[in-house]
Amino acid sequence: MKKLTLILLIPILLSGCLGASTRNTTIPLDNKITLSGFVYDFITGNGIPSATIEIQAEGTPIKSITTDENGRFSTSLYTTRTLITLDISHHQYWSHIGYIPIHYSSTEGIEYHLHATSDDPLVVNGYINYARPDIQTSTSVQAFHSLSMADSTEDMLPDMIIDEILVYADQIDVTTAKQLMQELGAVKYQLKPILEGIILTTNHPERIEDFLADALAHPSVSDAVINYPIVSLGTQPNDPFYAHQWNLPSIYLPQAWNVTKGSRIVTVAVLDSGIDQNHPDLQINIDYDNAYNVQNGSTDVHDPGGVESSPMSHGTHVTGIIGATSNNNQGIAGIAWDVSVVPIKVLAYNSRGNLAGSLADLEAGMKQAIKLGVDIINLSLGFPTEPSNPYGLNLYDLIRQATKQGITVVAAAGNGGKLLYPAKYQEVIAVGATTKNYTVASYSAVEDVWLFAPGGDRWSTNSIYSTDIGGYSYAAGTSMAAPHIAGVIALVKSTAAESPQEIRKLLWETGMEFDPTQQGKRLVNAYAAVTQAYIEDTQLSFTRVDDPNQTFVARGQITDRYFSVYLPEGDYILSAHLDTNNNLLLDAGDWYWQQPITVTPANNEQKLLIELDLF
């Protein structure tokens, strides 16, 4: 069997100095580029016929060509770009992406050495997941706030230490990196093959400018810049109590808001206890014209709350999670900044302060939601005892009718540790609850529940903060988890007309594995969902440390988030890149992971855990 090696040699014919910087190069508008080269087997030296070469510029396809029977290719094209990409692939060889800088010369001579994927392999396998976000929020707020407390707050950024520079050297390898580290007085280096650079770290961040100047003066360095730290903020609403909504950044909502904030044409029916109709944070996104009270057939869905000792309005709290007015310098932020929420009152508080309703009320609410043609139905409710014949109920027929009509039905899984109806119906997306620590909440149903969302810890500021009678309050439960999913679906449907079946598949395939002890359970990932960034589309690149021009590229080799590839023995930099905007470039908003690995017979079949984080 042949070893898996890929060596890229790019002899470039230039009208200037070889190795000179290509940044800020201007290309004439009529610049004609001739690409010619040879693709051949590294072991035998024989040309590889029928290899596909996709030529692209900044993610835009330009041309696709194939090698002839001798492995040679030649083509001409016009481009104003300073960099083009060649993606070489063949079903019997490792793929490779080459970045070709274009200068004033019109000819590029290119040679690619490919190695077959089946020669004395050493197995490297692993699992890929989205990283769980770090939650930086405050919990020092009282359990209940009056509206008069809704003062604006400033965005606070953490203090960042600037102690790194990125250098571009004549050679990007371990020997050069160690030499530069020693001669410049750095304490650490990191190869960045994808950037063709080296990161150097100093112990004296207060002298970072001097550190940079010394690097620029080094004869082996062609350029250098300060490696400024960044933080992933996404879109930050100015609602003063957003700082207490740890649940929203925990599912990548700030990043999702960079893509979409929702749409008023997307309608969510909330079948619950009604809402505080006078709440100023629940005016813009609430469709009061179509609101419905099943108990008296009116549009009066006002919920006065429970008994005096427990004044919470369940429906108001649930509704605020989905669609409280965001970025209005008041109160909290809703998941969907723009959405139409239709309150349908099917529950009411009894004399003991407990919410109560009946099957007839729920069926009437379902019929009204179907009649209105809503997009999503949220059911933060359930039967305390299992019906004797659940699939014989008219409720099940209504749920099937809604699904057939394109309505996605979401329901709370249950707070007694057991999955309840209607969430238990297979057509319904059952939602379990997680805590701030990314664990399944102690009260949440688990068995047969696959999708989870923040529900919080009971009786603490680590529960979910939302709208309530005359203000805001904390509450916990799968009742709070379900509207997170309804809100995320509203964001998804604002960008694509997905069916209930497609929504279910999308939320599963973009969900985060959040607890190693809970296999088969995933936490909703709003950003991955709205961008449809599937882990199976991740590109794995293995760059040899001793020769950064050798890069093995694996695409289409991830199944159910597991991968298995074959590599020759050696040290590598493993890079995993999930291209969110599909432009074939690594840029802000993409998912990325990088780590060094060593491949030897001693650690053959090593199992890696890759956790994609935002670049």
Q: What features would you describe in this structure?
A:
A hairpin with a 2-residue loop joins strand 6 and strand 7 (93-101). This protein is 15% helix and 32% strand. The protein is built from nine helices and 34 strands. It folds into four domains: 7-114, Immunoglobulins (Immunoglobulin-like), CATH 2.60.40.10; 124-129 and 540-614, Immunoglobulin-like (Sandwich), CATH 2.60.40; 164-226, Alpha-Beta Plaits, CATH 3.30.70; 242-531, Rossmann fold, CATH 3.40.50.200. The chain has a nine-stranded mixed beta sheet with strand order 16-17-15-20-21-22-23-27-26, with helices on both faces. An eight-stranded mixed beta sheet has the order 29-28-32-33-34-9-31-30, with no helix packed on it. Mean pLDDT is 83; it is low at 1-30 and 137-158. By secondary structure, the chain is an alpha/beta fold.
